[in-house]
Amino acid sequence: MTNDQSTNDMNLYSTTNRQHTTTFANAVLQGLADDGGLYMLDHINTLPTEFFAELATMPFAEMSARVMEACIGEVFPSAEEKQALATIVREAVNFDAPLVRLDENTSVVELFHGPTLAFKDFGARFMARIMRYLRERTVNDPRELTVLVATSGDTGSAVAQGFLGIPGIRVVILYPQGKVSHVQEQQLTTMGANVSAIEVQGTFDDCQALVKQAFQDAELNKVVALTSANSINIARLLPQALYYFRAYAQLLAEGRNNQAPIFCTPSGNFGNLTAGMFAKRMGLPVSRFVAGVNRNDTMPLYLQSGEYHAKPSVSTPSNAMDVGNPSNFARVSELYGGSVEALRKDLWSVSISDEETLETLAEVHKAHGYVMCPHTAVGYAALKRYRATMSADERANRQGIIFATAHPAKFGDIVEPALGINVEIPSRLQEYLNKEKQALVIPHDYARLKTYLLETAR
After folding, report:
1. Count of alpha carbons within 13 Å of 261, Cβ hemisphere only?
2. Where are the beta strands (DSSP E) in 208-366?
3. Total domains, the chain
4. What residues contact residue 90 under an 8 Å CB cut-off, 6+ apart?
5. In-domain check, residue 151
6. Which of 47, 105, 196, 317 is most buried, by CB atoms within 10 Å?
7. Which residues 6+ apart lie within 8 Å of 393 measured at CB?
8. Burial classification of residue 103, based on how many CB atoms lie within 10 Å of its CB (0-12 exposed, 13-18 middle, 19 or more buried)
């Protein structure tokens, strides 16, 4: 993939076959390529120097609109279409991602100020709006669009909330039985309206495999108009680059612009990290990406050995990252030309044990009075491990930014025993807890999922 500042028509290609190309609209509405690959932009535009010169004082909404126009603006060539894109972005990203300083060299950027209190609100809200826009203007299809999504925790609720009540679109969420928190499950299963939840007797990887099988089922796709909402969908992934720019802007506003920062991203399916890599290709200064993973250590093992081996996922306290075969590995590999040596120059990754995750929750609370979710704790621990490999001068001068991916109240059953405190539940989260769960329970069986989708298609 190359950087390109031209305004040629945008095509996307499949990570499985570069000759398999399509338009942006088709990629968004289809989700996964017919050959099972993930769609990639054929070029990434670099933001101009003046953008970065203005970044410290630029409102988040304006910054978001300019970044997204650089990403996909050529899909919206006229002034009217560009205004439509800006409106979509501003409606989607109508909350902030504030930087909270823990010490002189360490900050967290809170990504949980959206409606479902998780970072996935950024991508899900944008995707819902852009998908509706594209479908209304490019597709002559009377069928209801079915957004089929597998979730290990927060994706489902963010997607469901993003699409809630949108005419002509329904959401079907698959989640692994007994492997999401109670709060997460209540969010997934109580929205109603055009949102349905399916509780799968299996792991997240099983749910993800069922979704991919559905997309590759030609017979099903003749009847049901399917699209995805996981980070396999390029429209879910691209807006996640926005908070990397927002984080850097806040560093600049503090006057800490002497060196490119370290971005530490708690990682499961690696969409969050891939978005950061897109941001770097657009010109964002990045010293290193650090991917903190839990015991699902596929990526750290790949970086060590140079050989990728998918593994069955295992359950951990940071359940939203319990992914043994990260879908976005294909995009990460593509960005670096399949070269593990090139990837190692930008990415460092480490696996954090369950015990260390819980110890980190307590450590951060004791040292800084800050309460974080288990996923963010994995990120904090990973940054700490990475800093141990740095020189004393680098440690003293390099800013580390950790993405706080979810509100700790969503994981009270993990956080409260670890800290010995009660975590206040925000009112918009409490609303879900007061509703009755509604979910269809199925075995890990594709035939059962297919039957349901066919029977409920409109």
Report:
1. 29
2. 225-228, 262-266, 288-293, 347-351
3. 1
4. 61, 64, 65
5. no
6. 317
7. none
8. exposed
In a domain, 75, yes or no: no
DSSP 406: B
Q: Is residue 457 part of a domain?
A: no
Give the β-pairing of 43-44 and 2-3. Answer: parallel
Q: What's this model's pTM, rounded to 2 decimal places?
A: 0.88
| pLDDT one-digit tens code per residue, 406-422 | 999 989 999 999 999 99
H helix intervals, 164-270: 182-189, 204-215, 218-223, 234-237, 242-253
Q: Each residue of 211-270: pLDDT tens digit? A: 989 989 999 999 999 987 777 889 999 999 999 999 999 999 999 877 899 999 999 999
d(C-alpha 184, C-alpha 447), whole Å:
27
Write out the two tokens for 380: 């904090």
**104 in a structural domain:** yes
Gap between the Cα atoms of 67 and 84, Å rounded: 15
Phi-psi region of 306 (alpha: psi -120 to 50; beta: other; left: phi over 0): left
Structure tokens at 104: 């002189």
Whether 41 contacts 69, CB under 8 Å? no
CATH of the domain at 390: 3.40.50.1100
Structure tokens at 77: 């060539």
The domain containing residue 420 runs over which residues? 98-118+237-424
* 436 membership: H or E segment, kind and range: none
End-to-end CA distance of the chain: 39
The edge-to-edge listing of strands for the beta sheet with 262-266 is: 99-103, 106-110, 400-404, 262-266, 288-293, 347-351
Residues 167 and 286: beta-carbon distance below 8 Å: no
- 187 three-state secondary structure: helix
366 is catalytic: no
- Token representation of residue 316: 């951990």
- Residue 22's H or E segment, with its range, is strand 21-22
Provide the β-strand partners of residue 200. 176, 442
Catalytic residue from among 82, 120, 280, 311: 120
